[in-house]
Amino acid sequence: MPHLPEHLLAGYRNFMNGRYLAESGRYRDLAREGQSPETMIVACCDSRSAPEAIFDAGPGELFVVRNVANLVPPYEPDGEFHSTSAALEFAVQSLKVKNIVVMGHGRCGGIRAALDTTSAPLSPGDFIGKWMSLIAPAAETVAASTMMTATERQTALERISIRYSLANLRTFPCVSILEGKGRLSLHGAWFDISTGELWVMNKDTGDFERPVLE
């Protein structure tokens, strides 16, 4: 039995004979000099919405943290384990990124779970349920709307959760201070898996708009 699934080994062979071969100099530079990405992306761990693929990013260009439903929790220095907060701290304080993008996507399973209060927990620990409780008030409000279809409610909460995470980012002193000094910019985006469309949040209105591509 192989130590890795065969399809992963096949993909690695393709990587070494293709992209790595073409960008080996870049990889050697990154190994020697370290990383210095200008943008951090908080994305969902959904296998269909990989930021590196969506933004056609090369090695070392993006610092990506992925979790269920691309959520950012509020600043809570309570001594517990906070992986997303740790990644944020490293990106802002050590790498000194200039941009943070919270990118949600359509048909998000975590958002669907937040809207569906009738399903039983997946495990006794109910880790997903606890995590999605971060947006429980918004989920309850959206779920109660009878004027929207199930698909509309799903999309609405996906986008609301992005604005929620951006608000939580600003509870981190390192983020709010640097944003106030103009050294850090926060952005929201939403990716439609079925069409490939990217919607970007207007910072003034909070609305999601299609960017004009030249």
Structure, explained:
It contains 10 helices and 6 strands. The chain has helices at residues 6-17, 19-22, 24-33, 51-54, 83-95, 109-115, 127-132, 136-143, 150-169, 173-180; strands spanning 39-44, 62-67, 99-105, 185-191, 198-201, 208-209. With 214 residues, the protein is α/β, with parallel strands linked by helices. 26% of the residues are buried. The model has no long low-confidence stretch (mean pLDDT 96). α8 packs antiparallel against α9. Helices cover 43% and strands 15% of the residues. A 6-stranded mixed β-sheet has the order 2-1-3-4-5-6, covered by helices on one side. β1, α4 and β2 (62-67) form a beta-alpha-beta unit.
- Mean pLDDT across the residues is 96
What is the first-to-last residue Cα distance? 50 Å
Name the beta content range. Answer: 5-15%
For the report, how would you describe the main beta sheet?
6 strands, mixed
Radius of gyration: 19 Å
Helix content: 40-55%
Sheet/helix structural class: alpha/beta
What is the approximate shape? globular
| Uncertain ranges | none
Number of helices: 10
- Count the beta strands: 6
